[in-house]
Design a protein that fits this description.
With 447 residues, the protein is of the alpha/beta class. It has 2 domains: 279 residues, Aldolase class I (TIM Barrel, Alpha-Beta Barrel), CATH 3.20.20; 52 residues, no CATH class. Helix content is 36%, strand content 21%. Belongs to the anaerobic coproporphyrinogen-III oxidase family. HemW subfamily.
Length: 447
């Protein structure tokens, strides 16, 4: 991502946006992310911005969440309009968390209705919610489908009881086939999320999980290597020697096994950690069952994040905006010097993390934004490489700097980039390159 600004620039209390954010808006699509910060149980490996119901009350409670999030949707529409952002309907909506399905299905339907009323939805809009397998019923999924949801992403993680226990997941692995069937019966596409590299997970355990995921019949599978984040319960267990993490070779072997099994079952990788089932109706390129919302992130489209801790991004005009980048109400004066902002390729901001602070700001008529950063052309170019090279479609070599373009040949020779794709002008990772993607990115961004 862009160079770190730990606290960012101040965000104006009313959420006003600089006037340049809409200048390039018609170039891409617009998505909405809604962060629902509630979980029934907080898993030991999780460092997401989540809370159990007993931790919160008042305006931050699960009962009040839909009312609070509706206030931010209205604020978002108003500030975009005042900044001159052109009217665009929403192409993708994603409810993440936390576990969005801890809320009643009618609350999720209501929030989707607010998005539809506020911006409009594309006729083929993709609307996804994350869910735990033990948080839905057939009726719940039918309500979502009737409201306009098109996908559900279940946190399967593993099919092996002792692995789920280490991850502190509470669902019965035998339930996966049921929930996938219920979702398909309701007319929803299904994604299953898996985690590999859990302490104590053998290669046979991992094979069992991937085989079970394939047997359940999803449209899409994600497989992520476990990362033990500082401050989590699992990090404490590792530090005390209670759990031992697998080495990088173990994780690489498990990734390759997943790729083999998923490919044999008719799935195609379209991003390093994501596989989509190709259907007879698909043309060339990315399968239709790929997650279009996540593709929007990787391709640099605009989105507004609703909810505690949610991030947002709006593209900029790729010009020097020093005349108006800081001319928003309640923003402290910033020296208008050549060093201020060389050029703006976009604006990113993030909400306060705690649900109580988030709710209090909106109830007072203020923006919940905690800070923001202006992306320069150089920042945006770096992000295009970091995200774009992870995609099966690859990255246009012509978009790289001179040194990076010269490094392509070396990466082809090392077996990290596909030679045939490079000849036709694209940097596309080989499977070995997917395992060493960070190293490839360094070679393609060192200019």
């Amino acid at each position: 991502m862009s160079p770190a600004r730990p606290e960012g620039l101040p965000a104006p209390a009313d959420g006003a946006l600089p006037t340049w954010v809409g200048d390039a808006a018609s170039a891409g699509r617009f998505g909405v992310y809604l962060h629902v910060p509630f979980c029934t149980v907080r898993c030991g490996y999780c460092d997401f911005n989540t809370y159990t119901a007993t931790e919160l009350g008042g305006g931050a409670s699960q009962v009040a969440f839909a009312d609070t999030a509706s206030l931010e949707i209205a604020l978002a529409a108003r500030t975009m309009r005042e900044a001159g952002y052109p009217e665009r309907s929403v192409s993708t909506v994603f409810f993440g968390g936390g576990t969005p399905t801890t809320l009643p299905a009618t609350d999720l339907a209501r929030l989707l209705g607010d998005v539809r009323t506020t911006w409009g939805l594309d006729a083929d809009a993709e609307v996804t919610t994350e869910a735990n397998p033990d948080s839905v019923s057939p009726e719940y999924l039918r309500v979502l489908a009737a409201a306009g949801f098109t996908r559900v992403s279940f946190g399967m993680q593993s099919a092996v009881p002792h692995v789920l226990a280490t991850l502190e997941r509470t669902h019965d692995p035998e339930r996966i086939g049921d929930v996938v069937g219920w979702a398909h019966d309701a007319g929803l596409q299904v994604s299953l999320d898996l985690i590999y590299g859990t302490p104590g997970e053998s290669l046979d355990d991992w094979r069992t999980s991937v085989d079970a995921a394939v047997a359940a019949g999803p449209d899409h599978v994600s497989a992520y290597a476990l990362v033990v984040e500082a401050g989590t319960r699992m990090a404490g267990q590792v530090r005390r020697g209670e759990l031992a993490l697998p080495d990088e070779d173990d994780q690489a072997t498990k990734y390759e096994l997943a790729d083999d099994l998923l490919t044999a079952a008719g799935f195609e990788w379209y991003e390093v950690s994501n596989w989509a089932r190709r259907t007879p109706l698909d043309g060339p390129g990315t399968p239709a069952t790929a997650c279009r919302h996540n593709l929007a992130y990787w391709r640099g489209d605009d989105w507004w994040g609703i909810g505690p801790g949610a991030h947002s991004y709006l593209s900029g005009p790729m010009h020097d905006p020093r005349d108006d980048v800081f001319d928003t109400p309640d923003t402290p004066d910033t020296p208008d010097t050549p060093d201020a902002v060389a050029s703006a390729a976009g604006l990113r901001w993030w909400n306060v993390k705690h649900p109580r602070r988030y709710a209090a700001a909106l109830e007072q008529g203020h923006s919940p934004a905690a800070g923001r950063e202006v992306l320069t052309d150089a920042d945006a170019a770096l992000e295009r490489v970091m995200l774009g090279v992870r995609l099966r479609e690859g990255l246009p070599i012509a978009d790289l700097g001179p040194t990076a373009r010269r490094n392509v040949a070396g990466n082809v020779a090392a077996g990290l980039l596909e030679g045939r794709a490079a000849v036709t002008g694209s940097a596309v990772l080989t499977r070995r390159g997917r395992l060493l993607a960070d190293a490839v990115v360094r070679d393609l961004t060192d200019d």
